[in-house]
Design brief:
The chain is mostly helical and about 220 residues long. It has a single domain (about 1-210), classed as Orthogonal Bundle (Hypothetical protein af1432), CATH 1.10.3210.50. It has helices at about 1-15, 25-45, 45-55, 70-80, 85-100, 115-125, 130-145, 160-165, 170-175, 190-210. The termini are far apart. Bound molecules: adenosine-5'-diphosphate and nickel (II) ion.
Amino acid sequence: MHEETIRRTEGFVRERLAGEASGHDWWHVDRVRRTALRLAEEEGADRVVVELAALLHDVADWKFHGGDDAAGPALATSWLRSLGVGEDVVAHVAEIIAGLSFKGAGVPTPPRTTEGAVVQDADRLDAIGAIGVARAFAYGGFRGQPIYDPDVAVELHQTAERYKRGAGSSVNHFHEKLLLLKDRLNTESARRIAAGRHRFLEEYLERFHAEWEGRA
Ligand code: ADP
Ligand code: NI
């Protein structure tokens, strides 16, 4: 029963995200699902809720739905109901998706359950390390922002509104979000994985600026 639900959800998400070029493609979802299941094992979270929430977490992100925060949870809810999934699981998955997104340096988004904690951590781990670097520049290109502009200051957004409207560069995004993530994780298992990925981001930036300034 669960296997069938997961298999069909996988097909639904794969089809919806085909051709996505902003770093929210199917393979992002697949990596988040695999990392989330690994964290679920270590943290003792419910695997079915975690896998369904990970698979559905980006089906209708606010960045692509005119700022509508409710679109993702609503779509996940109708999809899971159409498969006959129990209301408790449906509500839990919708709640996890609704609370997942990073909304600015000064905006806390703590999940209520262990399942929410591991899915949020898995999504955030995919934003750092070598893959995080690739996704930041992919998303920046998608948005039409420069890779870097030394004249534009870093802004540590204090509200979700300002974060959404932020118009900096991809390198500023490292300071506005990526470098903050290791201290915004919920679980010890994720913090262990984050350490090496965070170091890579720092080394990457050091090298980037060294080349920019003609020191390397
Ligand atoms: P989350 O999954 O936490 O909501 P997002 O959907 O905001 O993350 O971001 C998806 C990917 O795009 C991440 O790797 C993120 O760092 C990157 N990204 C988001 N906003 C920007 C931006 N303004 N500039 C560059 N990269 C960005
Ligand atoms: Ni995501």
